[in-house]
Amino acid sequence: MIDPHEPAWWTSAVVYQIYPRSFADGSGDGVGDLKGILAHLDYLQELGVDVIWLSPVHESPQRDNGYDISNYRRIDRLFGTEADFDELLGAMHVRGLKLVMDLVVNHTSSEHPVFAQARQSRDNPYRDYFWWRDARPGFEPGEPSAEPNNWGSHFGGPAWTFEPETGQYYLHLFTPHQPDLNWENPHVRNEVYETMRWWLDRGVDGFRMDVINFISKDLALPDGLVEPGSVWGDGAPYFTNGPRIHEFLQEMRREVFGGRSGDFLTVGETPGATVEQALLYTDPYRAELDMVFQFEHVNVDQIGGRKWNYRPLSLPDLKTSWNRWQRGLADRGWNSLYLSNHDQPRHLSRFGDDGAFRYESATLWATLLHLQRGTPYVYQGEEIGMTNAGFTSIDQYQDVESLNFYAEATAQGMQPEEALEALRAMSRDNARTPMQWTAGPNAGFTAGEPWLQVNPNHSEINADADLTAEKSVFRYYQDLIRLRHTQDVVVLGGFHLEDPNHPHLFAFRRMLGDTEWLVLANVSRGNLELPPDLCVSGELILGNYAEPGDPDVLRPWEARILDISAAAGGVG
């Protein structure tokens, strides 16, 4: 897929993620759909992105908003028809946009016909497509603690569900409606590869692979460590980056892309991956993945790695993480650059100031992200400065993870308001509120009743208003995207972090040949005097304040990109 000796096309590309049910509703039923996306392709083309990543639109019972697929080769009627999909794909290609589909193959839906067959009997030919095990020795099947091991599900509760009909448990790392596929079975792998080839033949340009580093499990399925205060064990060491993961991915590359010409993209979501593991996944000579999504930087505000146990951002911690990944993948491999997606709260509310300095902090974080080495991802709405939902009642939430957390936490004694506070900060529904197109009813998202409540601030924050605003987040994103498209130093330049321990200053240099750029950002609400070694003269390439200021002082949430090549004398 790539020539290791030449930069791949995606090194200078920008990806835009669409969460279909929340982007735009073309039918008026309150749920976003393919027709809605089609109606806004000109908007995406104007933004300047190169690739659209489409979260799942496959046939699904929607127990986890489409990440539980019951038919991998059909479009769910919720989103439209097969003809709608083909029309959308064609319209994207006419505009020079590539389409990357979500590939969810660690697990499937419990309503998939193959699982329906597998659960019928122990000797069913499809039984080995999934992970079935007897009760723990010494326990009666179905009694408390009789699960084959103590692993907890990512969405709460045990990772095993008992089926009385056959007297065994099946594994699901997520909800009971998402049974894990058994990749040890070559028939499973072959069917996955055939499905991928089918989509490529249809014209799609690649895949974003959901939790792909979970597909290889330790066959012993041992118990995990139970942390204080937890009921279930942490099975991650036994299913994350498992023993055959590289073998499986290399086989996938050969079987799916071998001999196929075209500019394709493979992105692996790899929770828990380290820099060293990411090098293995993305080294072009190993022929596995083009890039990975890692989670280290979006866990820095979580105490003990627990999502709902959060704290204010420590900027030095974030700088340490980003520097580790920038330097670690400098010579081989490739970074995916993101702060928001469908699984993360809005980073503007999480790490920025979504009130008085909404524009400044939105553009500051965009600057820091897009000026790193890697492929930037824009999640729908961040380009106009959308914020967290601000929900005040559990009845407003739809996300299965959020609802499960609230139920478990309050059952264990947490006060409802405390649980709601955690949801307001970290719930995935924060990123899933409908796209805010206009100040009109339902933010212009739908003519019907939206499936999830629209953020009430849409009357002020919407695409129509931002595109015509003097301080437009959208226009600033356009500028950043143009820099990536036109400046080699942004794409391939080296990265050097400055003043790593400063609590408010985020500064780094990008260097390529005789070109050297300095990126400066003040992550605070107050003025910030620059350290003497960073008080350098240079040409302002881009900044988020219209009027020039003191060159040695950064204003609140100010970001600057300076060309300091002349002052630096080149870096050789």
UniProtKB/TrEMBL annotation:
Database matches in Gene3D superfamilies: Glycosidases, Golgi alpha-mannosidase II, Oligo-1,6-glucosidase, Domain 2
CDD domains: AmyAc_SI_OligoGlu_DGase (cd11333)
Pfam families with a match to the protein in the record: Alpha-amylase
InterPro entries: GH, GH13_cat_dom, Glyco_hydro_b, O16G_dom_2
Signal peptide residue numbers: none
Domain Glycosyl hydrolase family 13 catalytic: 17-432
Coiled-coil residues: none
UniProt keyword terms in alphabetical order: Hydrolase
Entry-linked PANTHER family: ALPHA-AMYLASE FAMILY MEMBER, OLIGO-1,6-GLUCOSIDASE 1
Name of the molecule in the record: Alpha-glucosidase
Organism whose genome encodes this protein: Arthrobacter pullicola
Taxonomic lineage of the native organism: Bacteria, Bacillati, Actinomycetota, Actinomycetes, Micrococcales
